[in-house]
Amino acid sequence: MAESRSIKVDYLARVEGEGALDVRIEDGRVTDVRLEIFEPPRFFEAFLRGRRSAEAPDITARICGICPVAYQMSAVHALEDAAGVQVDGPLRRLRRLLYCGEWIESHTLHVYMLHAPDFLGKHSVIEMAKEQPELVERGLRLKKAGNAIVALLGGREIHPVNVRVGGFYKIPGDRELSQLARQLETALDDALATVEWVAAFDFPDFEVDYEFVALRHPDEYPFNEGRIVSSRGLDIDAREFHEHFEEVHVERSNALHCRLKQRGHYKVGPLARYHLNHGLLSPRAQQAARVAGLGDSCRNPFRSIVVRAVEVVHACEEALAILADFERPERPFVDVPAGAATGYAATEAPRGLLHHTYRIDAAGLIEHAQIIPPTSQNQGTIEDDLRQFIAPRLDLADDDLRWQCEQAIRNYDPCISCATHFLKLTVDRR
Amino acid sequence: MSALVIGIGNPDRGDDAAGVRVVERLRSLAPPGVRLETVGGDLLTLLDLWAGAESVVLVDAMVSGAEAGSVRRLDASDRGLREQLGTFVSSHAFGLGDAIELARNLGRLPERLVVYGVEADQIGPGAPLSDAVARAIPVVAEEILEECRCTRLR
After folding, report:
1. Would you state the CATH architecture of domain B3-148?
2. Angle, to 10 degrees, between the axis of helix B18-26 and the axis of helix B131-148?
3. pLDDT tens, residue by residue, A65-94
4. Which of A77, A244, A269, A278 has the most CB atoms around its CB within 10 Å?
5. Which residues of chain A are within 8 Å of residue B126 when distances are taken between CB atoms?
6. How far is A357 from A369, CA to CA, in rounded Å?
7. Region at A167 (left for phi over 0; alpha for psi -120 to 50; beta for the rest)
8. Which of B12, B93, B107 shows the shortest C-beta gap to A16?
9. Phi, psi (rounded to 5 degrees) for B34
10. Across the interface, do B41 and A124 touch by the CB < 8 Å criterion?
11. Does residue A27 lie in a domain region?
12. What is the interface pTM, i.e. ipTM, of the complex?
């Protein structure tokens, strides 16, 4: 007799935004895996049309409360690309500092508050706090250091307001910057301890042969600039993105799926960046990665928590280096003329590559905007992971299977709110 | 007395701004000694924001199925919101109920914590405040002032 099983998870916990997963199992075979994103579409691209290009950083910062910096930085870089302006020197270093802040804040939130409970058999960080308050306090302290960077450079912790096309509205004072450096010394120690802690977790035996896609820069771990490269030979400029990638609408999801035209699904985010750029991590981050046993590549998505922790070490160390050599820019911004042009930029948000395109008209108004967030690029790969992960684990009870599927999705730290323009979990066994 | 009122919400999402609007209204009305703050999406910052305060009032929008603009007052000093409300859905990635329980387990809860919830009607991006919630704002502000004036909040 054919066996049918149906497992439903209506709302996925500990992900940002709302979505669901449907898994169908027929006669002991996984026949369908659907990641449904029912967070309503948010129409940011439509809001941007007709607005002055200078407004784009403030509007795009509103897309995400966790990674606003990535959105506004991709916007400013694309608008500077349109104008043919390159921002260098101290201003560029301050932009990287702001990026460090967002990575520390966003990764630490995910590592401690959302992902670690999975590996400790806890339902939430609230349970963790009861038994190991000192660990949770360490996470809060580390996250706070990231918040402090964003608050100081961005003007406030969430939805920063101090970023403009060409640079910043105001550069923080020397005293505030040296206070920040002291906080980051402690943060670096906390970040190193975090790598040691998460590296000792038990990880399911699971590896996937991904095509990794990330930015690559000749001499820096990628945040804000570089060529878009892949582990299967892609090597393009941000301007060529739409020639190689396409967004497709999939009925079950309010988030468009982004695919490589030639090869389909691919993976962005910490594992992709690590695979393609690990030699450019800061010295202590490289050392921490070695001790954690990451090697040259990590293809186990469950170990993404270790790579995130390593990237937090990098962000702390780079932030300290920027602050140690800080030179005050002559002006807080450079002038960026707005004229008819199209600009493209990709930056590395904490969750992966984030591509923006803007077409500006002669009056300096935005005629067309296209934003491709990391979670929409990873959707197909999340489904592929689940298909491969579930197949050898069909003997698990429904509750256990559901729990492990949720974990597999959290590996991606999916930002559903950003991608909707997204999660409920159903396993249907027939 | 170290009283602190914190309004929670996103000013650009219609009724989600209810908490922020209440605090804005209190700016001209609150007696000296009452600190006023607002918080956007990251509710973990509450733990630092209320450090050292003895009495804290939080105001947030809620979606419970009640009539739009209706107001609930919950004392979270000893019992969690989830325990009092049953299922609890928050619009924030790390919800208010979660932040309060995390603080409780870390021993970082103020001695007295009161939560006002204002039932939201429309919370879409760019939506205006609904009439029902606009009418509730002065009422909640007045109730909080009453707490501050030494009736319940000390």
Report:
1. 3-Layer(aba) Sandwich (3.40)
2. 50
3. 677 888 899 999 999 999 999 999 999 999
4. A269
5. 47
6. 6
7. left
8. B93
9. -100, 120
10. no
11. yes
12. 0.84
